[in-house]
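User: I'm writing a tutorial on reading structure tokens. Could you give me a worked example: one chain, its sequence, then its tokens, then a sentence or two explaining what the tokens reveal?
Assistant: Sure. Here is the example chain.
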Amino acid sequence: MTNLMKRVVLARHIAGVPTAADFRLEEAPLPDVPDGRFLIANHYVSADPGTRSRLSPGASYAPPLNPGDVVDGFCVGRVVESRNERFPVGALVTHGGGWATHTLSAGRGYCIGLPDIGVPEQAWIGVLGVPGMTAWFGLKRVAQIQPGETVLVTSAAGPVGATAGQLARHFGAAKVVGLAGSADKRRWLVEACGFDAALDYRAAGLDAQVAAELPDGIDILFDNVGNAMIDRMLPKMKMRGRIVVSGQVADYNTPPDEVPGLRNTREFIARRLRMEGLVVFDDLPRFAGAQSEVAGLLTDGWLKTREVVGEGIESLPGLFAGLFAGGDFGRRIARVGGK
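And here are its predicted structure tokens:
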């Protein structure tokens, strides 16, 4: 085993759209492993759009990172040294250790020993990890989806959106419509993921297209985009519709005083709407049951996923910047170690 680890830290607070130059690669000696701790050699590490909210000054739902801090990311890897009986050497673990080849952990917070259920390792930071669980609990707990309902998913080709649309079908939705940018994304959503329709969110006639696809309105808006899109869709909601605020990819790079507000709030009264955000770690005690069902859908080939895989920890800044630049789509992860 190498005696060095690599990590990517925030080089400076970010204003506007992130670039690879906002991050810095560092090397450091592997840490000693004290009593109660264990060392994980990470195999895959994720680049997540929600991390953007922590890379500028000012708190979001989590406090901001400071320059020099390891950047947030989810990991899956194996324990290579342990002084913690709950996590022995060889155990496969998923955790939130950030952009690093190795993580020293005490097993607290989001750190889960994984069963061998025949899924690819990287699935534990994808459809079986935070993106998939956000889709699951956003629909089940927040939206309380019922068979026969209509669902509109924004940023539908992203890992959360694509999973949410497919799970909505699994839960019995009558119709699932997605919004996405490129023709390739929209084609994949319909042909591979089984969405009933996928519309270009930039189209001049979007409002009319949504009305044509969902003429009776939207029961559930699963939003990953932000305030402007929510406001635009509010008049199209059904009576007692629910809005899941899952992400705000259009607002992450906007200064707080420039983020659009909501104007159509009268619709909440007229249509008895409910809007609720979620931080999926609130549902952590219920992950295992959801992961078991999603794993079955994945191994059966029913649930479709897509990945953009970089090689090495040094690929993560570029993968992250690419989240906000369009182009390739799918869960963005770096392969940082062997199995």
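What the tokens reveal: The chain has two domains: 4-126+305-335, 130-280. The chain has eight helices and 15 strands.
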